[in-house]
Amino acid sequence: MLEGTEGEKAIDISRLRELTKYITLDPGFANTGSCLSSITFMDGEKGILRYRGIPVQELAEESSFVETAYLLINGKLPNSNELNRFRMLLNDHSLVHEDMRTFFQNFPRQSHPMGILSSMVTALRSFYPALEGLSETEETTITLTRLLSKVRTMAAMSYKMSRGHMVVYPRPDLSYCANFLNMMFDSPVKHYHIDDDLVQALNVFWILHADHEQNCSTAAVRLVGSARVNLYAAISAGIAALWGPLHGGANQKVIEMLEEIQANGGDSRPFIERAKDKKDPFRLMGFGHRVYKTYDPRAKIMKAMCDKVLDKLHTHDPLLDIAVQLEEVARKDQYIIDHNLYPNVDFYSGIVLRALGIPTNMFTVMFAIGRLPGWIAQWKEDASDPNWKLSRPRQIYTGPNLSHYVLIKERG
Ligand code: CMC
Distance, CA 257 to ligand 1 centroid (Å)? Predict the structure, then answer.
């Protein structure tokens, strides 16, 4: 028996097969702990989320995305020297090799930004191979800073190029989040005004996405990383997993669903009925979670953020009204109550992103940038685990018993 620091209990079955010849079957790994981890704690029944012990609410209030990234990756909050050095490194590595621009130009126009991002992150390894003469720790520090900084630059770059606009380079005088907004929206004919409240909203958005223990994409990063592949390739696998509509891709799907409700007159009820119909594959996007059986703490902060950002911009988003109405109606529905379905982080996040001017097809890229520190921290934890093991699940074979090859001319 094992017990975590927050009292969660587990049975260690690592020698089960060796001792009994039995294995376990756990589709979707809903009951399986794949590792010991000291990075993120979540309690799905109580709606708790903490990074390195610190509640996500406190980080969203007090911290910045860069500081939170440092916390996740290094296990403690930085002092001011450490934070300055980290910021400096992020600035030093923020440019992307000019030759990579030709890659962007050659993707078909309609390519989804997540597919492009996943390919580009793998490609980073070819442009930035392992450095000679560095210790493993130094090499990892440079690789992870490159990833954090360049992925953000590449995301803005791909947006500019998709619009046929000139690429805007990162500026050393701007913070990580301000730089991103500037690279996205500044133009030679219209300067982008950097608003501190919007920069703060982006900080909070990314802090809320920074880690979420062993979710699908993080499990992918760990699994791929367990083959001792380089960090770029492992992160690229995480990006591919995150693209899925049941995972990070849900933020794009939520807005598409709200737009569909709007186009159908604004009443969410028929959509809730569809979600309950077992013959209909439709699900309420942005609702439900494998671990949270109560309100996702991130969704609460995100909802408040919608109001704050829209107020600041003196604007109104009719999709927010539809989302609020959908939540109200859904939460009174017996099916939704019985199934413990609450809004998750993706339900309100798209409204914040729309207000910031981010196009819908880039929403999941925004999630990916936010999740980078978590993926990196989890990869690092795995890579430095003295009990590290190649991830290799087993299966229960249900196919044919021994049968023999039949020559094609003798087959019926
Ligand atoms: N709408 C309608 N029914 C749902 C929904 C939903 N959004 N989510 C779960 N259910 C039902 C499901 O039909 C099943 O019903 P029954 O037991 O009667 O057959 C039951 O709830 C359990 O569903 P499940 O798929 O086995 O549960 P899960 O724990 O694997 O689901 C989930 C987690 C996120 C895949 C699911 O809730 C879902 O598909 N949600 C919509 C997509 C979404 O918003 N994803 C973002 C997740 S949060 C961001 C992130 O971390 O990626």
Answer: 16
Amino acid letter for position 227: A
Using an 8 Å Cβ cutoff, are 322 and 265 in contact?
Answer: no
Rounded-to-integer distance, Cα 48 and Cα 294, Å: 10
> Closest Cα to atom 42, ligand 1: which residue?
246
The pTM for the full model equals 0.95
Residue 184 is encoded by which pair of tokens?
Answer: 């996205």
93, 289, 296, 382: the active-site residue:
289
Phi, psi for residue 189 in degrees, rounded to 5: -100, -10
Which residues have CB under 6 Å of ligand 1? 212, 215, 246-248, 250, 275, 283-290, 339, 341, 344-346
Which tokens in the block code for residue 350? 């798209």
List, for residues 185-198, the tens digit of each pLDDT value: 999 999 999 999 99
